[in-house]
Amino acid sequence: RSPYDTGTLVITYVTNQSGTWNVTTTSFPESAKMRQSGWDFAVDSMGAAHLACGLQEQLDEAVTWPGSLCYFTNAGGAWVEERIATRSTASWDGSFRDPSIAIGPGDRPAIAAHLKYNVLTGSDALSRLVFACRTNTGWGLDILAETADNYFGSDGGHFTGLRPQLAIDTAGTPHITFSDLASSHVGGYEQWEIGQIRHAVRGAAGWSFNTILPQSAANKEGITLQRLFVDAGGQSMAMVANVYPGGILGALTLDIAAPALPSSFASAISIDAVHLPTATGGAFAVGDQLSVRLAVHHAISGTYDVYAGVYLPGGASACFKA
Length: 322
Known about the structure:
With 322 residues, the chain is mainly β.
């Protein structure tokens, strides 16, 4: 957490690795008041913790606010911070949004993030997908994608990299799923949709890209959440996503070598009707609005649990496991 009034980042770490639960709190004084723009957490094969975090300085309204992609770890015993990159321009704020961290061979961390620039009034100016990987000499940061794949509004197609999800298979190959942004200004105000699921994979010849769930911004199709996992054997990916219109929740298994999705989720994930309101008789309709709260991957069994909320006609709601 990063309190606005102190300019200090506080990490509270809870673990039971010793057999009993222990809590440690570490403070990192920052140069200015900071706002978080997303974080993610991973544990390596030795039990060390790795945290990726986006931080943006909160400065005077008349100047641009730089954003930083930060990395924290306790692999050496005590928590340390590494500043991977900081971005802004003379006229645009910068921020690293929704970082996703994964641990590769040799317990090397890697991070995918959405690099967003916005004008001082808040509207989006530019969005990119970035990838950072730790080496023996430090961190390298690459821009992987700068343009949308035929998903855009009147502001143009230079908005991509949103909601990235990073996974690394047993061969050490990084996979990233991400989405595009369709931005338009109507009456002086920005209106936008986030849509499509795109897949990036790094091979011997570099990074390649494929849109595995195409959508139409013109038809106001979009996606509200996605989660990506690599199974325990590193041979397949599983994804959970909300897409609209229709509030469909889908869970699919993707072949890492050739990921592909149908144009729509052919079959919604099965729902444990016990958790649905009795007034519905356990029935679930495509038009019901869903919101994924948590998707859990069990590495040993290779199974997935999805916990979601469902909003039904008439104002009823429920939480269920699928």
